[in-house]
Structures
1.
Amino acid sequence: MNDDVRNIVLGVIAAGISATLGWLARTFLWRRKLRRKQAFFGLPENSESLLVVNRDPAAGEPAVHRFDVYALLELSALIKDCGAHLHVVTQDAAHQGFGERTEFCVGGPGSNRRMMAHMSAMLPGVRVNIDAEPGPDRGAFQIGGERYRMDPGITEYVLLARLTVGDRRDARPVFLFCGQRAITNQAATRYLARNHERLTRKYGTGSFVLLLKVINSQAYGPDVVELVEDVTRAAQTALPAAATAPRNTHRAS
């Protein structure tokens, strides 16, 4: 074998080794990223999850608002990416506890009984005005001592929460998407899909409650979202007894 042939063979071998090492490195990083994502969502390979669907309060018959359908589709994609399975149930048919499998619950307490139950059990510092009559406080959030009113289509708010209960290390989380309007529910699911890596770095697999502001949804849809504040402590601290909830206001207590 002359020098030219030997150099060609060595070059091919070196290229093959480099390609193999590069593939192994990319595979390792992809798997590590996937494991972090699965841990954050509580969705190991082939696990089961629950998607709780709310109802459209404006519809005469049981129906789901189109923006909530979009939210469910985005959540379905996240679940599929983790290699998990999902079961879709309506808000009045979810009769089970939490912690056994990851749950994604969409819609405010006025359209989702399951959301009302979760907020009462886990977010005692939050009240949502579910009065059907028009007024400045319709749909408003009260979190601790702060009130957040919506200006429909201009400024709207949504709570995005990841909650775990008890000390079980294997307890699966509950994700809440509680918005003042259906489009804000979709905005929260999209925010989670885009920012879950940053949220993982900050919170790990712990609980958090974030207040998000959806800006000018009538022009930008669910895409322009700002983080207002981390309200975990206020949301999980019971409101004073003197702050009695008015009629047609859901009190999470």
2.
Amino acid sequence: MNKKVLVVDDESSIVSAIAYALRREGYEVETANDGEEALVKVASFHPQVMILDVMMPRLDGYGVCRRLEDRDDIGIILLTVKNDIVDKIVGLEMGADDYMTKPFEIRELLARVKALMRRVEKSSPPADEQKSQAIVNGDLRIHVAHRTVTVKEEKLDLTPKEFDLLTILMSNPERVYTRDDLLDRVWGMEYAGGTRTVDIHIQRLRKKIGDTDQQKLQTVYGIGYKASAPNPGGSA
């Protein structure tokens, strides 16, 4: 299968430079100049990775992320001229996987695309692998092969990283993971972001699975996080 990357930016010089570098590395590349065009290209091109500028006409990068929030098969790298931690957090909360500030080195961008592509491919298991495997904790059920999560039989919209993070924790209940452990396992050694990324994704997961009392995903203060053991008396 070809490795497909969609490059989205309203600056044609940036789009051309990135697309040229990616094609030289063997990627199949499509481009778009605004958010609305990007959504059309996603539907027709089916990229595994999207390089997405934040500040664009018609629909900005954050808006694109919101519209793609229920997709678990696209890795997103956001590009922006801003270098503020708040903007980075907003991007991650919108479902982006990585973040780069302009101007950037094209070699670093290529390295991040390569790392994200590996993670996206690794998270897509073969169709015949563990078809019936499920992880259950109370009314929460993770369907591993299909990469879906339900609570009280209602399907949740999780990003790829949210799904991977939840699956790792729920697969090993009561095991304590440090933030660095989870960062390495979910985002990979090449990821340049900090451990705050893990905290943001845990907060989002708790909200989505209805874990307001933090019983399923527990904070181990000064260390990291763990999932509680399934309650034998709870629903399944």
